[in-house]
Amino acid sequence: MPPPTKSTSSPLSSASCSASITAASTSALTVFALSIRVDIEPLESIAPRRAAHFCGASRGAPQKCAARRRVERSTRCPAAVMTSETTDPPHRAKPEEAETVREAGACYVSDMRPAALFTLATVASLVAFSLAGVAAPPSRARRAPRLPARAEAALSASAAGERASVVALRAPGPPAVLVRAGSFTMGSSEVEIAHAVTLCKLEPAGELCVDETEASFANELVPHEVYLSDFWIDRTEVTVASYRRCVSAGVCAEPPYASGGQRFDRPEVPVVLVSWSDAQRYCVWAGGRLPTEAEWERAARGVAGRRYPWGHVYNPFHANHGRLSFDELDDSDGFLELAPVGSLVAGRTPDGIDDLAGNVEEWVADYYHPEYPSGSAKNPRGPDMGEERVLRGGSYILGRPWLRGAARGHDSPTSRRAWRGFRCARDA
Ligand SMILES: [Ca+2]
Ligand SMILES: [Ca+2]
Predict the structure, then answer these.
(1) Architecture in CATH for domain 175-427
(2) Could you tell me the keywords of this UniProt record (predicted)?
(3) What angle in degrees, to the nearest 10, is found between the helix axes of 276-285 and 240-248?
């Protein structure tokens, strides 16, 4: 342990020490005050070892050091001779620190009288305190502005390792969108179905897209005019948070997350592992119903007959999709499995409806039949009976042709899948 020094026990040195600490943010003044604290001691009173440290000389050579300092007083202070009173072994200044000290004149006060040094140190301390106060505004003024709660949550998710490299600040959308009454063309032509096969061949395992694939799209035939009255449709897929309110009310059944699906049990993502009856029960509890197949297609394609909710051209960054491959998951859109609802704003319809392509495929009200009824229809509700219900929109395990607004899926109403959810509609 080094011996105690005067600079750490005298009132003068105590004040200058405080000045050094206070002015830490103003490096020049800090070093200046520090040099004063060191140099107020006559050189001969400093223990030989510390004097040696001060000058950067070897131990046992204080006289040589003193001579060296006198020379330096009229020249320059070498970069490597600075030291610290509180550091043992001595602190060898970095070049930039030495440069700062030289600019502060530290090398030119070491031989001044103690009285003069006392006055100079006091003045320097007061200046340091004053400027430190100016340089350090109140903590309130330095506090970073608070982000909106949604941005804070996104940043927290990013810190937790999830993908959230871009934080989009925007006003939340409405819970539902009103679709005005009118007619549109439902279904696909043979040309459109041939194009769907072309899209299929662009998938990683496109060699699997053969005649059978084309036949699977034939259930979109034939295009027919449909008139729909005004209706409301949810802007997003029903989330876990919303569904849990129905569960808490004792109306809806708990999805079977506990049997291996815990990672899907997050409030901001679509509820999955729900049967058609689960979906219908929720929508009735929420004051609505499942959309009809025609309503769903009208919402996705508009009156212009868009191929995708956002337009006519496929864009892999506009939907949380999968791919036709041995591994059906695809995180090139930012999400390997479920995405929080409304994550891909660019994929929103012109009406403002999110995730009608991808994320989760969605139960609709109709029974499934592989052929549409011929002729035009008004507010069609599908077959009166059937073994399966219709699914729409594709999901995070499906590629581009199945994300088209006209594509039709189907499954048993009692089935539950990790990529399947729903949204609700209401009469206007
Ligand atoms: Ca994806
Ligand atoms: Ca969807």
Answers:
(1) Alpha-Beta Complex (3.90)
(2) Signal
(3) 70
